[in-house]
């Protein structure tokens, strides 16, 4: 995989000196060492590039999720390991650095990208990634992009594609970076250009880091968003066997039940262990454990996962509850996601009830009912841009405002549904302060002294396998990709007064 942190700068020389081992293996596996022209029509596109283009186009045209669509396309095409790796790198790398590549393309084409046919723009982005951030040979990147343009665009688009990519290939990635940055209009725009994030997200991340006194880490955070995330697995406590754990790699740095899978197909492992081992980011594991391990479990406790879809945290909570003699109820309003929750909970020997009710009404329908509630609130997902790179281009500032009312309604309802003395974990996969600290502060203020924030950092550190270096005394925990290697999960523990 290329390191996307610098917009592909570091591989400029290699991009012109020949293919990487992965790309060479992918192409030789297809061609068998015979020149491509003897085997395929002139407009043939190598399968990995074809699939990468199709996924990128689907993201643009129908708001598809790359992390869901790409594995399906790879499986249907029966790609070998090398081709699958190439398709994955091309897809995710192009989507991550799309903003940077659009600026390069605009300079090379001498026109704004809005004036370029969207299908051809996707081809150019894919070609730019190969030229500037991988070791794919220049002739392969350009020629196959031209063949792809011939299939999805007009005859004139073919020449245009060739001309733009030839122009890009004549300058190094470092030279393009300098040209792009010269055109930035202010400091935020410069960071947005270099690290390929919308400027409004740059500003939001700066504010979140400022809240901890770590604004100087902004570039590190943006760079971390452009790196491929580790494959994290969780071994469900009390369910995963010693044999299950032997299939896994090294233990996670912080989560006591997590592992990093260093090779193999994670979903095959999930199937082989009947769900006792699951794919789950280490930050999500920590968020669930913060609730289950906030204090010793008293047998008979009732727990609720209020917004449980797709079910990963619910499965971990259910296994923790089972080990301590508590019972969990999961709730998910959206029927399709409720199905995913039931599937995730199928690993449990006992049936876990899954409700499908409006979470904002839970305080009225079930007041003073639950000892512990997890509210993994619907949010923008800005903390998971490593895994969902297209989300940075799909989300808008108004999404934050639109979600605030729902988040406030859910947290208010959850606090009413707590028993006196009960604990609520408010969690988001977003560091945006309007979705995190602001929502919690408003809920506490409206509660009028009946709710207090626990020392969440102390709770998390108490079960963490290593020092998380968390700011003390804030009542909340913000995990970071650049600092902790996790998604940017926000966690606050609130306790209702007795």
TrEMBL record:
InterPro entries: MeTrfase_RsmB-F_NOP2_cat, MeTrfase_RsmB-F_NOP2_dom, NusB-like_sf, NusB_RsmB_TIM44, RCMT, RsmB/NOL1/NOP2-like_CS, SAM-dependent_MTases_sf. Residues 1-32 are annotated as: Disordered. Belongs to the class I-like SAM-binding methyltransferase superfamily. RsmB/NOP family. S-adenosyl-L-methionine binds at residues 307-313, 332, 358, 376. GO terms for molecular function: RNA binding; RNA methyltransferase activity. Transmembrane segments: none annotated. It comes from Cryobacterium levicorallinum. SUPFAM superfamilies: NusB-like (SSF48013), S-adenosyl-L-methionine-dependent methyltransferases (SSF53335). Keywords: Methyltransferase, RNA-binding, S-adenosyl-L-methionine, Transferase. This is 16S rRNA (Cytosine967-C5)-methyltransferase. One of its GO terms (biological process) is RNA methylation. Residues 12-32 have a biased composition (Low complexity). Residues 205-497 form the SAM-dependent MTase RsmB/NOP-type domain. The active site is at 429 (nucleophile).
């Amino acid at each position: 995989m290329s390191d996307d942190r610098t917009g592909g700068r570091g591989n400029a020389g290699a991009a012109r000196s020949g293919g990487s081992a992965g790309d060479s293996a992918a192409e030789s596996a297809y061609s068998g060492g015979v020149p491509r022209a003897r085997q395929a029509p002139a407009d043939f596109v190598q399968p990995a590039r074809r699939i990468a283009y199709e996924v990128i186009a689907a993201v643009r045209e129908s708001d598809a999720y790359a992390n869901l669509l790409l594995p399906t396309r790879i499986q249907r095409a029966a790609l070998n390991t090398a081709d699958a790796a190439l398709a994955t790198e091309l897809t995710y790398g192009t989507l991550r650095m799309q903003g940077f590549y659009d600026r390069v393309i605009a300079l090379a084409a001498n026109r704004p990208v809005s004036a370029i046919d969207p299908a051809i723009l996707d081809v150019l982005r894919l070609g730019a990634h190969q030229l500037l951030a991988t070791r794919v040979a220049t002739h392969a990147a350009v020629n196959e992009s031209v063949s792809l343009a011939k299939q999805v665009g007009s005859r004139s688009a073919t020449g245009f594609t060739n001309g733009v990519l030839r122009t890009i290939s004549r300058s190094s990635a470092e030279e393009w970076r300098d040209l792009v940055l010269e055109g930035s209009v202010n400091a935020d725009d410069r960071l947005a250009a270099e690290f390929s994030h919308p400027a409004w997200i740059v500003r939001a991340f700066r504010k979140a880091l400022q809240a901890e006194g770590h604004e100087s880490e902004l570039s590190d955070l943006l760079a971390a968003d452009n790196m491929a995330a580790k494959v994290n697995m969780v071994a469900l406590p009390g369910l995963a066997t010693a044999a299950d754990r032997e299939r896994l790699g090294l233990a996670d740095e912080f989560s006591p039940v997590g592992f990093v899978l260093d090779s193999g197909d994670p979903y095959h492992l999930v199937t082989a262990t009947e769900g006792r081992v699951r794919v789950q980011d280490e930050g999500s594991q920590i968020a669930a454990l913060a609730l289950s391990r906030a204090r010793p479990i008293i047998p008979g406790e009732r727990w609720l996962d209020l917004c449980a879809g797709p079910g990963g945290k619910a499965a971990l909570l259910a296994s923790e509850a089972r080990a301590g003699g508590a019972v969990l109820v999961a709730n998910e309003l959206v029927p399709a996601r409720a199905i995913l929750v039931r599937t995730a909970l199928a690993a449990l020997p006992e049936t876990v009830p899954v409700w499908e009710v409006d979470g904002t009404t839970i305080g009225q329908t079930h007041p003073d009912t639950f000892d512990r509630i997890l509210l993994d609130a619907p949010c923008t997902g800005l903390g998971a841009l490593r895994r969902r790179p297209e989300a940075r281009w799909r989300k808008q500032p108004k999404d934050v405002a639109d979600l605030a009312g729902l988040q406030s309604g859910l947290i208010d309802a959850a606090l009413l549904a707590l028993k006196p003395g009960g604990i609520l974990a408010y969690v988001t996969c977003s560091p945006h302060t309007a979705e995190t600290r602001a929502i919690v502060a408003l809920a506490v203020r409206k509660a009028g002294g009946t709710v207090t924030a626990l020392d969440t950092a102390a709770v998390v550190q108490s079960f963490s396998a290593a020092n998380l270096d968390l700011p003390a005394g804030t009542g909340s925990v913000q995990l970071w990709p650049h600092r902790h290697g996790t998604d940017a999960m926000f966690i606050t523990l609130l306790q209702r007064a007795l």
